[in-house]
Amino acid sequence: MIIGIIGAMDEEVKILLSQLQLSRAQVKANMKFNFGQLYGAKVVIVKSGIGKVNSAICAQILIDDFNVDNIINVGVAGGTAEDIYPGDVVIANSLVQHDVDTSAFGDKVGQIPRMDTYDFKCDRNLVEKAQLACRKIGDIRSFTGRIVTGDQFICSTEKIKYLNSEFNALACEMEGGSIAQAAYLNNVPFVIIRSISDNANNGASMDYKKFAPIAIKNSTEILKNMIMNL
Ligand code: ADE
């Protein structure tokens, strides 16, 4: 079994790469795919770059060229629910792309027109393994629910309220929904695990700078515990 691990930014893959027993690396679409053993599992770790297009291309390469059996995306996110704070972890069970809007044709916002699903559901087994990892670690607060994705850094109180009420979102980020769509189209199990770096409100960019390192540490720790049990 080979696990594809995607992080969008250097910071999100740095700890993982430092712990990878690297066997080889290959560059494709300007992304470096790093192969090796991580905590006893066979993995490919890659930095996709930020946003939906980069991350979808990355997921498709993992599937087509490197035959991964499942995909795990780790990184940071903005909190969009009450009671979710920097450092908390959100395990997605479902992803919606909040910036897709063909409501002019009567579609619900987020629905990709003419696709047979509104949301992209994460693999139940991977979700359970991530939840188990959180319980084992103990001192990280974790939530399971919907994460929404769009090509936007959210930094407005109004927008968070909208994301929460329209999509029932716990967190927002910029890659999970497109990784989910690529995995869904290829029938590959996936899960998105994000740790909160900010509350997606007016102070989001300041909070992000302050809390991203601790958030990344938490999502990495969960991944570590999780893949040791896969
Ligand atoms: N990733 C981390 N914080 C975010 C935010 N506020 N909006 C979008 N993506 C994020």
From TrEMBL:
Gene3D superfamilies: Nucleoside phosphorylase domain. It comes from the Bacteria. The keyword Hydrolase applies. Its EC number is 3.2.2.9. Keywords: Amino-acid biosynthesis, Glycosidase, Hydrolase, Methionine biosynthesis. Pathway: Amino-acid biosynthesis; L-methionine biosynthesis via salvage pathway; S-methyl-5-thio-alpha-D-ribose 1-phosphate from S-methyl-5'-thioadenosine (hydrolase route): step 1/2. It is an enzyme of class 3 (hydrolase). InterPro entries: MTA_SAH_Nsdase, Nucleoside_phosphorylase_d, Nucleoside_phosphorylase_sf. The keyword Transmembrane does not apply. PANTHER family: 5'-METHYLTHIOADENOSINE/S-ADENOSYLHOMOCYSTEINE NUCLEOSIDASE, 5'-METHYLTHIOADENOSINE_S-ADENOSYLHOMOCYSTEINE NUCLEOSIDASE. This is adenosylhomocysteine nucleosidase.
